[in-house]
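This part of the workshop introduces the protein records we will be handling. A record pairs a protein's sequence with a compact description of its fold. Comparing a sequence with its tokens is the quickest way to learn the format. To make this concrete, we reproduce a full record directly below:
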Amino acid sequence: MSLPLEGVKVIDLTSVMAGPYCAMVLGDLGADVIKIESFPDGDASRRFDPKVNDESYCFAVLNRNKRSVALDLKDPRGKEAFLKLAAGADIVMENFRPGVVKRLGIDYDSLARTNAGLVYASMSGFGQTGPYGKRGGYDIIAQGMSGIMMMTGYPGGRPAKVGIAMNDIASGVTALYGILGAYIGRLRSGKGQYLETSLLEAGLAWSIWEFGAWAGAGEIPTPTGTRHRRSAPYQAYRTQDGYATVGAGNEKLWQAFCTQVCDKPEWLADPRYARPGDRLEHADDLERDIEAVFATAPSAHWVRKMDAAGVPGGPVYSFEQTLADPQVAARKMVVEMDHPKIGRMKTLGLPIKSTGELTEIRKPAPLLGQHTAEVLGELGYGEADITAMLDGGAAYDDARGGAA
């Protein structure tokens, strides 16, 4: 058996987060991902701290299972090499500002003339069309404009950014399923296609419940802290030593929570908490009552009691505590690998487990231009031609030097 995308060639022109995340997963699925980078700087995230032996750890975690080819696409020889590479590619992906690939002559229409089966994906801040189509965009801009910041945080507080680069990752995941869908379509029809998504649209597409409430009743989602908008108790509650989450929104769980976890059967007769809607309406009172009980013992105590009662709940961890949790360890979500400069390093594990070969961490993130000569050789360039390109500034190879 082999990984599902083994033999699939991906040309990755993207940088920073959204595109590289998408390309990383394609590499995890077995694709040969060739990351095209400019030089001397390469992907902007190569400059991100922290660095170990002058290599960005963040870049190394995000760019596993890829090869790096450093080309000057404005140099005719660099562009020629790229066009040869793209002619044999299955997938090309880019996240330049809209219009850049057209000016460089490496847009979908240009490449599809010699590669009709090409799947070409673009990621941008706002999309390739519309009044904002030419704007650049970052995750925080998209979080603000997709309404997410105005529904995150606590009531009365300032708009809050989600703690991770949510719109970036949403865009990468959206592009990923678009690419896989288009590739499956190509397997059936032989025809490739162009697809594109944006940070704005991908994040907005995840606001399913909020959209339903707005479209159905004109409800504007506002910040609720850790509370659910439709269910209570469903939030994080303060304990003696931190916080614990509770998910006891239905009647069966609510009864178990009152009697077996909190030892407060009288709550079942309290008219404020009689029905789910009542508990939601009186969420402030409910929070005070639950926290009065939870304040008497540490989080671990309440988590054990909820587990015993069959009530979903858990501790609120710092990130370090998350990575040290035995469940995370058992699921192999932190693994180690060897990097050519960093040395032995940790990386996030594979979030999908399967009965067959599906995903695999096969190789570390590449050094800038580490595979330039190798890939040029695969394209049929002779040693003299490769040396001339390196010496002449059309390409760069980490091992052999050149114009960088």
In short: The chain has a mean pLDDT of 97. DSSP finds 17 helices and 15 strands in the chain. The longest strand covers residues 32-37. The domain at 9-206+330-402 is CATH 3.40.50.10540 (Rossmann fold).
